[in-house]
Design goal:
Blueprint lengths: L1 H27 L19 E5 L2 E10 L2 H6 L11 E11 L12 E6 L5 E7 L13 E8 L2 H4 L7 E3 L1 H4 L4
Parallel strand pairs: 2-3
Antiparallel strand pairs: 1-2, 1-7, 3-6, 4-5, 4-6
InterPro entries: DUF192, Saro_0823-like_sf
Keywords: Signal
Pfam families: DUF192
């Protein structure tokens, strides 16, 4: 009789361990933004270039081109190099709105149309839930550290060039 109780206890413990391990695995598979960790995407091998009146400005960029990547964006990112950014690529031009919830860094949000022309440059305040929108449909959004656009002479009407933008006409 005692042997049967130990056997039952062992089976119940094994089942509980399996349930706990399965739950831990699926919890660890949630997007980074859900568990307060920054999403870090691979840096694209091709630089993004902003063509301005004063010359060209080059940036290394991470490309956010899926819904999950665009939703997480730069959330929870504590720091970023001055020449680094994230390029958000949408399937087609659309009205977009961004917010800065869970984003501790102030950012420049550069909104560009299908042709790569900058339509608007807006500032994002850390942790703000205020909606940031260009007021017209765009296909691309480039996020850079706050003040980068002004320091680089990047303005409305300037052109963004990158292979992800170059293939957007298809």
């Amino acid at each position: 009789m005692t042997h049967r109780n130990w056997l039952t206890t062992g089976v119940v413990c094994a089942a509980m361990a399996f349930v706990i391990a399965t739950g831990a695995f699926f919890h660890s598979q949630q997007p980074a933004s859900a568990d307060s960790r920054a999403m870090i995407l691979a840096v694209d091998p091709q630089p993004l270039v902003a063509v301005t009146k004063g010359g060209v400005r080059s940036f290394s960029v991470e490309i956010a081109d899926t819904s999950a990547e665009r939703e997480a964006g730069l959330m929870f990112r504590e720091e970023m190099a001055d020449d680094h950014g994230m390029l958000f690529v949408f399937e087609e031009p659309r009205d977009v709105s961004f917010w800065m919830k869970n984003t501790p860094m102030p950012l420049d949000l550069i909104f560009a149309g299908q042709d790569g022309r900058i339509r608007a440059i807006k500032q994002g305040e850390p942790q703000s839930e205020a909606m940031i929108s260009p007021g017209e449909p765009v296909r691309f959004v480039l996020e850079l550290k706050a003040g980068t656009a002004a320091r680089g002479g990047i303005e409305d009407g300037d052109l963004l060039r990158h292979p992800a933008i170059g293939t957007a006409h298809n």
